[in-house]
Specification:
Strand 1 and strand 2 form a beta hairpin. Helix 1 packs across helix 2. This protein is α+β, with helices and mostly antiparallel strands. It is extended and about 50 Å long. The strands form two sheets. The protein has a three-stranded antiparallel sheet. Strands 3-4 form a two-stranded antiparallel ribbon. The protein is about 40% helix and about 30% strand.
């Protein structure tokens, strides 16, 4: 699976919206800042239609590394859960 990097994403938004790359970059940076602040506060954010990003705590403990299958010690930390609406999934799969 190929991944579109940040620069490509910004350039594509610029092309599709007829907005200068520098302006798109400023907006994306502001959005990233809003996301991080919200996540640190424990708040979920729905930045795009049908996609909700929700901070989730991971407690201390031993967890299985899915790549190496080794047991690793993990300290308290936060991660992000992604929730997709049914409508979003239907659009993704061409059924909606």
């Amino acid at each position: 699976m190929e991944v579109m990097n940040r620069s490509e994403f910004i350039r594509e938004i610029s092309l599709r919206s007829n907005v200068e790359v520098e302006d798109v970059q400023k907006v994306i940076e502001a959005g990233e800042d809003i996301l991080m602040n919200s996540f640190r506060e424990g708040e979920a954010v729905r930045p795009f239609y049908g996609i909700t990003l929700k901070p989730r705590p991971v407690k201390d403990g031993e967890y299985l590394n899915p790549k190496t299958l080794d047991i690793v010690e993990v300290k308290n930390r936060k991660t992000i859960g992604i929730l997709l609406s049914t409508t979003f999934k239907q659009k993704l799969n061409g059924t909606g």
